[in-house]
Amino acid sequence: MISGMNLVAGKWEDNSNAEIFQTRNPNTDLLLPEEFQQSTTDQVNRSVSAASDSFEFFAHTSFKNRILFLKTIQEELLLAQSEITATYQQESALPEGRANGEFQRTLDQIQCFVELLEEGSFIDASIHTQGPDLRKMLYPIGPIVVFGASNFPLAFSTAGGDTISAFAAGCPVLVKAHPYHAGTSERVAVAINKAIEKCKLPSGIFSHLGGQSHSVGSQLVSHSLIKGVGFTGSFSGGKALYDLAQKREEPIPVFAEMGSINPIFILENKLKTDSNLAEGLAQSVILGTGQFCTNPGIIVVCDPSDSVDFAKEVSDAIEGAELPPMVHKNIQKQYDKQLRKINEGEQVDALFFAKSCKAAVGLVQASKFLTDSSLADEVFGPFTLVVKCKSNDEMLKVAASMEGQLTTTILGENSDQEVSKKLLSKLQSKVGRILFQGVPTGVAVTQPMQHGGPYPASTDSRFSSVGTDSIYRWLRPVAFQDCPNELLPDALKNENPLGLERKIDGRIISSAL
Ligand code: NAP
User: What is the CATH number of domain 6-258+463-473?
Assistant: First the structure.
């Protein structure tokens, strides 16, 4: 059963005076029956205080105990899988296959952090024995606020990568549930809370707070005991929260992943020779009804002889597709509004609408694209804009005009290598991940994954919000100088009780000192 209550440090609190909100089934556009209570300022304050009080204990828990905690979350999620995925589908209209896929991805992400803790070297222990005895390692930064993402009710929400990486680091987490899937979020929060109880961890390490006005999120980010923020969503939301955090008396890091148009560059010879390109890209554009931050929003083609009607090829490939509705009517409204603006204006040279679904493909000459920066705005949904270049130089100018992106893709033949090299050189300073085949949708959870790019794609391009490296958002270095061995953390003790690989006087060594 979904209670609609808020979880304040281990206790589900019923507040009969709370403002109420409901979620909506995007398939029927009807409100779902459960009533959710907006959390109060008092609940926010008590949750943050409890998180802060539990921090010192949690920060010093052993890797072994954190592994047990993460594994118990996996077990509790599995026990509730059918309820979680049923609510997920009701609240998002995303199909069963996606629900199960995202559920599994959520478990797999947790597993990645289990393995990271088992191996342990992420703690980055280093020891310098010449001169003063200096030893350094990473230490958690404190209570973190995580904002659930509307487009990933599981993998980027309550037990998603932000929460799990923060737990693995030793940071308490306060989740601001996304109001579009508050029921899914609550079910997942129940599983996390049970894991906390079973592992006998302090209840303050997790609170789950609901609300559909910006006030709950703003209060959390503004609270002086909060030390970091993880966010995936709109540019306006991410930037507002970032600004709020910088205005605090103590500014804190906000790791906001705010979207991207993920330009695909198709070089001249590739365009001429690969007849499967349009089909593959079309599938990526409409995947998940286009609700991915890695959706290919711009396809830049180099076609000096004007021999390929690539926009038509992509739109033909999309024709006939049937897509589920977007996860919320507000997101659909925003998509429709942006397409209407493009259709009514004179910005693009052509706009193809699919008859079977809401997908659309635009076409614009590069010369026009280069004079109108609004054409590079993200259209969140199943839309892509084909930008046609008359030369390699024009393509390089388009690349140079791009703002920070999560990804870019360079598709070329061997014979395109010279221009590939120039493109790569320009794009490397603008993106987080560069692909040379395939499509950008699909973000593997591995250590070398980079999900985050220069502003405005993210607020801090030095970090990733996907993959095990995402843990570094929640850690900071602490050095110990001439500290007695008994007082050192285990990771830095002479006898190396954790068996870690450590950098000792510049060499990686796993034996005792
Ligand atoms: P959003 O408006 O950015 O909201 C995400 C979360 O941030 C919500 O929990 C919201 O809380 C909170 N929030 C937003 N602005 C805030 C502010 N000024 N102060 C405090 N809290 C704030 O994103 P959305 O609702 O998921 O979708 C809206 C649009 O975001 C989409 O149409 C799409 O363009 C974009 N989007 C991008 C991505 C991506 O991958 N980067 C993912 C999803 C959506 P409340 O709702 O409680 O106010």
Answer: 3.40.605.10
- Looking at residue 346, what is its pLDDT? 86
Which residues have C-beta within 8 Å of that of residue 91, sequence separation ≥ 6?
23, 24, 25, 32, 153, 180, 181, 182, 183, 184, 327
**Phi, psi at 139, each rounded to 5°:** -135, 140
Instruction: Tell me, using a 6 A CB cutoff, whether residue 6 lines ligand 1.
Output: no
The reported pTM is 0.97
Hey, what long-range contacts does 496-504 have (CB within 8 A, 24 or more apart)? 498/63, 498/120, 499/120, 500/120, 500/121, 500/123, 500/125, 501/121, 502/121, 502/125, 502/126, 502/127, 503/125, 503/126, 503/127, 504/126, 504/127, 504/129
pLDDT at residue 463, rounded to an integer: 98
Residue 328 has phi, psi (to 5 degrees) of -155, 150
Q: pLDDT per residue over 32-80, tens digit each? A: 999 999 999 999 999 999 999 999 999 999 999 999 999 999 999 999 9
Span from the CA of 89 to the centroid of ligand 1 (angstroms): 20
Q: How far is CA 487 from each of CA 355, 480, 482, 492, rounded to the nearest angstrom?
A: 69, 10, 10, 10
Q: State pLDDT tens for residues 396-452.
A: 999 999 999 999 999 999 999 999 999 999 999 999 999 999 999 999 999 999 999
Span from the CA of 325 to the centroid of ligand 1 (angstroms)? 18
Portion of the chain with pLDDT greater than 90, in percent: 99
**Catalytic hit among 34, 257, 268, 313:** 257
Residues in the chain: 513
| From 293, 302, 357, 389, active-site residue | 293
Tally: H helices and E strands in the chain: 15, 23
For residue 452, is it left (φ>0), alpha (ψ between -120 and 50) or beta?
left
Question: Is there an atom of ligand 1 within 6 Å of 237 CB?
Answer: yes
Residue 234 CA to ligand 1 centre (angstroms):
5
The whole-number average pLDDT for the span 359-386 is 97
Taking the CA atoms of 466, 471, 475 and 479 in sequence, report the sign of the dihedral they define.
Answer: negative
Question: Can you tell me the mean pLDDT for 223-233?
Answer: 98
The 3-state DSSP class for residue 431 equals: strand
Measured in degrees and rounded to the nearest 5, phi and psi for residue 45 equal: -65, -40
**What is the identity of the amino acid at 56?**
E
**What ranges do the domains of the chain cover?**
6-258+463-473, 264-435, 481-509
Does the 264-435 domain belong in CATH 3.40.309.10? yes
Give, as one character, the DSSP assignment of residue 402.
-
* Other beta carbons less than 10 A from residue 194's beta carbon: 17
- Given the structure tokens 């790019």, which residue do they identify? 453
